Amino acid sequence: RHDQNGSCFIQTLVDVFTERKGPILELLTEVTRRMAEAEVLQEGKQRKVNPEILSTLRKQLYLQ
Amino acid sequence: MEEEMSNPRPLQEEAYDMSGARLALTLCVTKAREGSEADLDALERMFRQLRFKSTMKRDPTAQQFQEELEKFQQAIDTWEDPVSCAFVVLMAHGEEGFLEGEDGEMVKLENLFEVLNNKNCRALRAKPKVYIIQACRGEQRDPGETVGGDVIVMITNGKPHTIPTYTDALHVYSTVEGYISY
Asked: Around Cβ B67, how many Cβ atoms within 10 Å?
């Protein structure tokens, strides 16, 4: 987590869920894309991180 | 029949009815987790925009993680109007399958998920339940992999373009964890 800006995951998720609309699984694919692009610095070394999504949804879920 | 096979029809899209109440619960350990207040602020903004009734609790112990989920389940099951969706955000230190409470004790994620399943939460039966977990699941660090392998390397900003080791996969099991597959 960034001391002031928070965690890459939560901040990206909130950005995508508030700025975009569509079925939740498509929004989460966009979250994964953005996180995979990001370079996370940890102890001076560049790291990569991405979420893992497991779904048993039976229908499309729209939050917007 | 043959014609049907050669002209597949688009999927008939069915969506969850979201006209009822939307309820959210956020449980967040903030101690020794700098930046967590920024995450809570962002989530509060998101829940407001998405019209969720949001409850947030800071620094739950391991036992309180379980108790707060159970209180949430009882609130949902006694809600006056129909409930459409539950959104649960859990933020803490953790390891695979476990979260660490403010007291340093561990709580099993599976036990938390059980509380709102179709068996234990009647009002959410067949309704969408979204869990967002912000926590470590181990100690490994991913340096990433160069896109294109050794032959073609995309260069962005003077550096090779890398992606995380575990992306671009879709895992689909025939049954959920712990259950027989027929």
From this structure: 14
Closest CA to B114 of B73, B74, B144, B77: B73
Residue B21 · residue B81 · CB < 8 Å: yes
CA distances from B81 to A40, B22, B58, B103, B144 (A): 44, 10, 28, 36, 48
Phi (first) and psi of residue B119, to 5 degrees: -80, -40
What is the percentage of chain B residues whose pLDDT exceeds 70? Answer: 92
Amino acid identity of residue B10, one-letter, is P
pLDDT band at B182; cut points 50, 70, 90: confident
Q: Which of A5, A10, A64 sits opposite B134 (nearest CB)?
A: A10
Task: Look at residues B15, B16, B103, B13 and name the one whose alpha carbon lies nearest to residue B66.
Answer: B103
Q: Is A49 helix (H, G, I), strand (E, B) or coil?
A: coil
Tens of pLDDT along B83-126? 999 999 999 999 999 999 999 999 999 999 999 999 999 999 99
Could you identify the residue written with the tokens 């800006």? A5
Q: What was the ipTM of the complex prediction?
A: 0.95
Q: Kindly report the nearest CA distance between residue B74 and chain A, in angstroms.
A: 23
Is B136 marked active-site? yes
